[in-house]
Design goal:
Elements: E1 5-12, E2 16-22, H1 24-29, E3 35-39, E4 47-50, E5 53-55, E6 60-66, H2 70-76, E7 86-91, E8 102-108, H3 111-124, E9 128-135, H4 144-148, E10 153-158, E11 165-166, H5 169-179, E12 183-189, H6 192-202, E13 208-212, E14 228-231, E15 234-237, H7 238-241, E16 244-246, H8 252-259, H9 263-277
The structure holds flavin-adenine dinucleotide (FAD) and FE2/S2 (inorganic) cluster (FES).
Amino acid sequence: MNNTIIKKRALIPGQTSMLIIDAPQIARKARPGNFIILRVSQNGERIPLTIADTDPQAGTITIVYLVVGKSSALLETLNEGDSILDLCGPLGKATHIEKCGTVVCVGGGTGIAAMHHIAKGHHMAGNHVVAIVGARSKDMLLFCDELSGFCPELIIATDDGSSGRKGFVTDVLRERLEKDQNVAEVVAVGPVPMMEAVAGVTKPFGVRTVVSLNSIMVDGVGMCGACRCNIEGETRFACVDGPEFDGHKVDFNELRMRLAQYRNQEKQSMDLFRREHG
Ligand SMILES: Cc1cc2nc3c(=O)[nH]c(=O)nc-3n(C[C@H](O)[C@H](O)[C@H](O)COP(=O)(O)OP(=O)(O)OC[C@H]3O[C@@H](n4cnc5c(N)ncnc54)[C@H](O)[C@@H]3O)c2cc1C
Ligand code: FES
């Protein structure tokens, strides 16, 4: 049945979960880079989440979320067989994908799942996909099995060295760009500081760099202005003009500021949720 959770898997217990949801129409239309907006309760917030994968035959989509506040904690209370109140999508512009040679896809934290769909799209287009994934430690890595299924190269970097290379994804990327002049494009999805750092690394090499902005969104269709961001001095709406933009043109300082603007309310809301749910 539409919006039913077919499968739930804890990827990092208590922190990050994956849901496979029955959503045949979205599964048929969704392309890499698209996202959905869902709502768990009648008076609840609208939560934008990237579509990490689709199975058009089975009519399902996959989402992966980090429990950070009240709405994601509420989503986490749902189980297999439960239905999501409403689910809207696919939203946003799909990733621009064409056959261009070597594409390096960089993913950090929960962004690895979102990057997975884009990497798959580049692979399907015939590109040589190098996946670079980073996390604080081994048990926080996501989607490595899935990525190694189609990426000829998967390079892991962990902050503590518990898996792969000790260090940041940007160290691995810089080395790659120094020894390989054939990288046509870099895609980065993850925390804002990571995407900013990736854009900083690629700039001197002149390599096209795409980042996926997680601006605060409300309607997701370009009407409310909540997701506005500054792209080379021009105002753009991440929900309809993005969420992917040229990383060399994004004003990351403004993005960071806008993401933090409701921090007090978010904390109060989470404290209240914890009190009510034990
Ligand atoms: C296009 C897009 C794709 C995203 N994909 C994913 C994904 O695949 N997995 C994932 O874990 N997260 C994703 N996010 C972020 C996710 O939407 C937020 O983590 C979530 O809305 C937090 O809500 P909350 O009530 O749990 O947390 P809150 O306590 O309300 O907020 C915690 C932080 O989440 C962000 N946030 C809060 N409300 C929103 C909102 N309405 N829109 C966007 N960000 C918000 C802010 O940075 C805030 O500081 C995506 C965001 C966007 C815009
Ligand atoms: S979320 Fe409202 S304009 Fe983008």
